[in-house]
Amino acid sequence: MTKKTTKKPTHNVFDTLTERGFIKQTVFEDDLKKMLAEECISFYVGFDPTADSLHIGHYIPIMAMAHMQRAGHKPIALLGGGTGMIGDPSSRSDMRQMMSVETIKSNIAAFKSQMARFLSYDGDNAAQMVDNGDWLLGLNYIDFLRDIGVYFSVNKMLTAECFKTRLERGLNFLEFNYMLMQAYDFLVLYQKFGTRLQMGGNDQWSNILAGADLIRRKEQTAAFAMTFTLLETSDGTKMGKTQKGALWLDANKTTPYEFYQYFRNVEDVKVEECFKLLTFLELEEIREMCQYKDQRINAAKARLAFEVTKLVHGEAAAKIAESQAVAAFGGDVSAMQTMELKIPVSTLIVDLLVNTKLAKSKSEARQLIAGGGIKIDDEKVAHHEQEIINLTDKKDFVLHKGKKSRLRILLRS
Fold first, then answer.
1. What backbone torsions phi and psi does residue 371 show, to the nearest 5 degrees?
2. DSSP state of 412
3. Which of 10, 59, 342, 390 is the most buried (most CB within 10 A)?
4. pTM (two decimals)
5. Among the residues of 152-227, which ranges form H helices?
6. How far apart are CA 120 and CA 73, in angstroms?
7. CA 233 centroid distance within chain
8. pLDDT at residue 93, rounded to an integer
9. How far is 311 from 278, CA to CA, in rounded Å?
10. Are strands 42-47 and 74-79 parallel, antiparallel or unpaired?
11. Nearest 5°: phi and psi at 77?
């Protein structure tokens, strides 16, 4: 086990996370708060590599890790090279698609690169990347059942929130093992690095709690669980869904401009919460910007969009996205986000919308046109069978979708 550091935290990060609205659930809260105030600890958050990029759902746990590290604690990003072979049943109504070892390794490499914008890999409390495939893939199943399975009650597991949805549709034994795998991860990290705290999204509560309980029972020592609020819209649905799908942290999957525009158009009532959770701005400054309930909140939205885009994509990309947004809604076509397409002017507007990904499908494109939401320059598209040439003879024009999406199109022969 790694020797415990005697260095003291710079401040009690528990208060920081509480004030900024991160914490949803904990256990043994008073003991956890006392520990975080008195000693620098090793803690971890798990990330299953189910895609080749992190998305906005990972953002809050990563920001919490950054706050913890700034206070002096040591972050471990546990990448699920082992658990990714099974798939987490939490919040799922169906079984996750099985991935190859090669795909998992490729996804892990992408995660490591993206996290570098938030976490420092230098200093006494340098962030560390660990792959649970290192110990899970070579497990002896009989030994695992004897050493770990004995601490788990099937009756209790069946009441866990993470299994409820799947039980209605059928939970297979492969998925049922996931909780034991994740709990075992916590135990291994405790034994190797002295890790005392696991953190994650609130949909992981049952799994995280299982790991803390395993350490307390098997090692007879304190271990802690903490989950964070999920980023949701005012109607309770998860934030981060765009016209093209998830809001990714990879610029090739969600461009900095699209990322910027998402937060520029966030609901008024969610602006302050997003500032607290997704940026490092001081609370006093956030409250000052978010005090208005009229059109003046738009200045706060623009600042939010810039700060979040800067964290994810860098300041240069954020400035470009900001200038493109100003151009799109201020009439400066030359600075607007631009897409070059090699398509004829006889192309249907329906196909143009799909090619530019302003619509996911032709049927959705037809619905947008029928609703009067599509324009080329100042000309409204009246019918889904209209061609580009029906509305303009230019090969340089602005495609509008509703009031919030504008894209400059350059047609090339």
1. -85, 0
2. -
3. 59
4. 0.79
5. 154-158, 161-169, 173-176, 178-193, 205-218
6. 12
7. 15
8. 40
9. 9
10. parallel
11. -95, 110
The token pair at 192 is: 């190797």
Nearest to 71 by CA among 45, 111, 47, 35: 35
As to burial, measured by CB atoms within 10 angstroms (0-12 exposed, 13-18 middle, 19+ buried), residue 52 is middle
Pairwise CA distance, residues 252 & 266, whole Å: 22
| Pairing mode, strands 338-341 and 405-411 | parallel
Q: How far apart are CA 298 and CA 281, in angstroms?
A: 17
The residue type found at 47 is F
Q: Burial of 212 by CB count in 10 Å (0-12 exposed, 13-18 middle, 19+ buried)?
A: buried
For residue 214 the two structure tokens come to 């395993």
- Kindly list the averaged pLDDT for each block of 10 residues, start to end, along the chain of length 413: 68 96 96 96 92 91 97 95 67 52 84 90 91 92 92 84 70 79 95 97 91 95 96 84 78 92 92 97 96 90 96 95 83 72 86 86 88 84 84 81 81 77
Q: Give 234-264 as a DSSP string.
A: TTSPBS-EETTEE-BSSTTTS-HHHHHHHHH
Q: Where are the alpha helices (DSSP H) in 253-348?
A: 256-264, 271-278, 283-289, 297-313, 315-330
Contact at 8 Å (CB) between 181 and 99? no
- Are the CB atoms for 231 and 277 separated by under 8 Å? yes
Instruction: Please report the domains of the chain, with CATH numbers, ordered by start residue.
Output: 13-228 (3.40.50.620), 241-330 (1.10.240.10), 338-411 (3.10.290.10)
CA dihedral (307, 313, 319, 322) in degrees, to 10, reads -70
CA distances from 149 to 55, 144, 200 (A): 33, 7, 23
Encoded tokens for 171: 């939970």
